[in-house]
Amino acid sequence: MPTAKFPMRLDKFLGHATELSRELARRALRAKRVTVNDEVVKSASLSVTADDTVMLDDERVEIRGPRYFMLHKPAGYVCATTDADCPTVLDLMGFDGAELSIAGRLDKDTTGLVLLSDDGQWIHSIIAPRRQCLKTYVADLDGPIDDAIVQRFSEGLTLRNEVKPTLPATLEPVAGHQVQVSIGEGRYHQVKRMFAACGRHVEKLHRVKVGSITLDTSLAPGEYRLLTPAEIEGAAS
Ligand code: URA
What we know:
binds uracil, Structural Genomics Hypothetical 15.5 Kd Protein In mrcA-pckA Intergenic Region, Chain A, four-stranded antiparallel sheet, 16 strands, alpha+beta, 2 domains, elongated, Pseudouridine synthase, ten-stranded mixed sheet
């Protein structure tokens, strides 16, 4: 499966999804052989998302098979398929609510790597608690960490209003009050609550890795791309 980054120019989309070269795709556009969402389109630079309906000579053109995406989530979007009050990551990507599932949610103010797919088994392999899939975050704190906090993370600590301690987590300093933390669970607001249990407030949280998949630094906030076969294979490892 080619690595395709959305939104994408229409000529590039046609190049990925058909046998046409980019030049032949442009000729097909000039010849009015292409429609996008039922409108004839001649512009090669029109921006399309994976959710647009592109037809060539009245045949649907799509990048086939189950779809696996990484999104660089900006702040301000909720990881839900629908929400009455806030824009969702699916709104951002231009998908309808029920089309894709989200592998592990981020808070509205958290940024970074979100994995989505229409392959339910694959999503399950990432989020199933017994897999303890590692998620890595960079957190900006309101103060420094010390050895005692690192130790509490590594031993597992008890969150407010909970009884069962967290699984051992790794915590490393990055620079200043910035740290990197890896956890194998996905409890509600877990990272923020782990720091709160140690007297620290998380000012910013950014997810950089899920399993073996690292956020592609060429993706600007709001951009997304298809995963490569190697990324799909290794996701839950
Ligand atoms: N932990 C949190 O506290 N928030 C997130 O968004 C993800 C993990």
